[in-house]
Amino acid sequence: MFPLRLAWPPAKNKRVDPVRLLSIALLGVDKPNSPEQNRGTNGLTPLPASYKTHSQPTFRTYQYCFFSTTSRACLNMASGSEGAGNPPTKLQRPPNRLGLEKSSYLLQHAHNPVDWYPWGQEAFDKAKQEDKPIFLSVGYSTCHWCHVMERESFEDEEIGKILSDNFVCIKVDREERPDVDKVYMTFVQATSGGGGWPMSVWLTPDLRPFLGGTYFPPRDSGRRPGLKTVLARIMEQWVDNRDGLESSGERVLEALKKGTSIATNPGETPPPAPDVAYRCFAQLAHSYEEEYGGFRDSPKFPSPVNLMFLMSFWSVNRSSSEGAEALQMTLHTLRMMALGGIHDHVGQGFHRYSTDSSWHVPHFEKMLYDQAQLAVAYVTAYQVSGEQVFSDVAQDILLYVSRDLSDKSGGFYSAEDADSLPALGGTEKREGAFCVWTWLEIRELLPAVVDGATGGATEADIFMHHYGVKEQGNVDPEQDPHGELQGQNVLIVRYSVELTAARFALTVEKVSKLLASARAKMAEVRKSRPAPHLDTKMLASWNGLMLSGFARVGSVLDDKALLERAVHAARFLKEHLWDAERQIILHSCYRGDEMEVEQGVSPIAGFLDDYAFVICGLLDLYEATLETDWLRWAEELQERQDHLLWDAEGGGYYCSNPADPTILLRLKQDQDGAEPSPNSVSSLNLLRLSHYTGRKDWSQRSQQLLAAFSDRLTRVPIALPEMVRGSMANHYTPKQVVICGERDAPDTSVLLATVNSLFLPHKLFRRDFGSQSLSHNESVTAIIPKGPDVS
Predict the structure, then answer these.
(1) Per-residue pLDDT tens over the stretch 540-551
(2) Positive or negative, the Cα torsion across 304, 306, 309, 313?
(3) Considering only Cβ atoms within 10 Å of each terminal Cβ, which end of the chain, N or C, has fewer?
């Protein structure tokens, strides 16, 4: 038996006792009240302070790190490669099985000295035939700490041999197989109180997890055990305590099945929407950080679902102090994010999250789903406030996506990496290298003296004052644990244009032009820098979110080019990610070597978020264009979603096909995180489709879905703010506004643009004519939720 050391207690989980599960998983015992556990002689060691978790703010992040006081021999332990000559480099090694995959993440590991398998029957059969435990490693291509673990451990010849000889090693792209990721992340979170990527889980040959964690360093460092030690202890237990591990895997799985069950009780109805909404507001207000906005001190995530809920809450509580507070929280957060370093002031778009409380130093990767949701949040803030800055930021985001994340087919790529090679050369990638600036670089790029400026200031002086650039760099060492940003500057707006103009005795117009010109020059310099990795995987779900972004911003701003881009995206989805023969959405496709769109050898069937997000995007596109083809396809997809994923007994939708025997938990995602829960989005989709089609069964299904999540909505609505919006939409009776006239007439277009410019939550457009074919004499109906001050 190898004892575990408790560095700090894991967060309590009311559904599953993490200490008990750890004891079951590792020791084969079930003694939750044992004094060893209570004294702290068993437990967890935390991640390094520099570890940047990708879990959402409601979780604390931990990682299992185990050590042993024994020194017993281990199975097939490699003798070590240190001092045995130079091992082959990554590119010198022949590719493993991952070389045949399409996923960027899997291809990044194709030359590891590890006998990797993709998730599939070949790997499962091997584990059973050879009677070996499975090592499951899950990550994604733009994950900084995934790169670190690959470089430290999976590129290590010795560790690679230990893994290959003693385990069946499976590598999974979490974006490609979210169903697999959700099951084992549920295990890791339940047993540690948090999670993140890379995720490392050990399974029995029948896929039962018995041990899990996140990042492991390669070797012991002080009191921190390395992956090599962890592997040795697991191998030891596999021989000495095999029955205990296997039975514990089954017990853990049963506990998780019970703990994650979401179902409607007989006769249960959804909780009252106004009560749920007020409780959600109160919980968000309690977690709100007043100085810089956002909902925790650090790290700080954009959390668009929170902001969209708060604006919806304000819309029906405009005359109350709570409504005013909700709006103030939202607009202040969006303003501070736009000013901060999380916003790329040179290259547009937003980085993943901020490592500090002031939105200054980001984790530099850029994700498609963030751009999509933030574009909608900013254009909604523009509708609410009329402030041009919010419209500008929304357009800024879409400019970035159109330029850097768009495929010629109409699809959108998944992400840009945080890491890239330094501009001045080097073989080690560094986080943020593509985005940061030295004081000297800016001095040399912007040397011109500005006419009329105080003290003979140069363009560089004005720019560096405005964006907080310092000669020694402006990144706090606490935000740079590896020294990658030493002497560098992350641009952050420190003064308004008006204050900067006053400081240098210039006009606001002149300073605005100067700053815009400087940013354009810096963008040109960036083009000469080594670019970060671009993940050209195209996912139906995230493309659905981005379709909503272009459709919503295009309709609010009456921008035909943005609406045309939305239509192009919808056509891409239908051409490349809809299997008309099998009548299913496909989850992903890829950019090929010749820039063509490719599918994998075994196309992955769509998951719930693929259906829900695409349906939402199609409904947004229909409302923006009034083209009924998009509405019809949304209806068709909703029918397929109902058929494939609806839980007829408990209500709500399963995240993936419940008939798949390799997915051990039938989960219904009960948290709006970096992306909204697809059940939350479906609660709104069903209601919108019910109004458009007259199908009352879809309205009833929306109610049944909300009833299934009643406990979560009642106790912790902050976990599901998007579903709270669905509850509100079900509560407030729609009010119809009819615009009569020829569809393409200028005055009709003006009226439609006027309605689109207003923030009317859950607003629905439809043609109220009863005929499937449309004529130029048809009128247009807008359905608007009934509530205070909606006129």
Answers:
(1) 999 999 999 999
(2) negative
(3) C
Compute φ and ψ for 199, nearest 5 degrees.
-105, 135
Instruction: Locate 430 and state its tokens.
Output: 């560094």
Residue entry with tokens 């299904």: 701
| Residue found by looking up tokens 């969209």 in the block | 308
Token pair for residue 335? 């303003």
Composition of the chain by helix, strand, coil, percent to 5: 45, 10, 45
Rounded to the nearest 10 degrees, what angle do helices 540-556 and 608-625 cross at?
20
- Quick one: how far is CA 257 from the chain centroid? 25
Kindly state the tokens that stand for 303: 């959390």
Q: Map tokens 């400019």 to a residue.
A: 399
Determine the Cα–Cα distance for residues 438 and 422; give it in Å rounded to an integer: 12
Residues 6+ apart with CB under 8 A from 159: 153, 218, 227, 228, 231
> Closest Cα to residue 309, out of 338, 285, 342, 335?
285
What is the rounded CA–CA span in Å between residue 544 and residue 668? 20
pLDDT at 58: 33
Structure-token pair, residue 778: 């048809």
Write down the pTM of the prediction.
0.87
Q: What is the dihedral of CA 606, 608, 611, 612, to 10 degrees?
A: -160
Cα gap 509→582, rounded to integer Å: 58
Peptide bond into 198 cis (omega under 30): yes
Pairwise pLDDT comparison (401 vs 71), residue with the higher score = 401
Question: Residue 584 pairs with which residues in a beta bridge?
Answer: 579
Q: From the DSSP assignment, how many helices (H) and strands (E) are in the chain? A: 27, 20
Q: How many CB atoms neighbour CB 334 within 10 A?
A: 26
Give the residue carrying structure tokens 């070389």. Answer: 99
- Decide: helix, strand or coil at residue 635: helix
Judged by DSSP in three states, 350 sits in strand
What are 15's two structure tokens? 């559904």
pLDDT digits (tens, 9 = 90+) for 213-240: 999 999 988 777 899 999 999 999 999 9
DSSP 55-97: S-TT----------S-----TT-----TTS-PPPPGGGSPP-G
Residue with tokens 């879905």: 705
Beta strand 366-367 with 362-363 is: unpaired
Amino acid identity of 15?
Answer: R
Cα(395)–Cα(626) distance, rounded to whole angstroms? 22
C-beta separation of 459 from 506 below 8 A: no
Helix (H, G, I), strand (E, B) or coil at 400: helix
Mean pLDDT of 612-629: 95
3-state secondary structure 436-457: CECHHHHHHHCCCECCCCHHHC
Main-chain dihedrals φ then ψ at residue 507, nearest 5 degrees: -80, 155
pLDDT beyond 80 at 123: yes
Query: Is residue 243 within a helix (H) or strand (E), and if so which, with residue range?
Result: helix 242-259
pLDDT band at 784; cut points 50, 70, 90 = low
Coil, strand or helix at 354: strand
Q: Dig out the tokens for 118 from the structure.
A: 């993709």
Q: Rounded to whole angstroms, what are the CA distances from 671 to 182, 454, 589, 678, 787?
A: 12, 53, 27, 9, 27
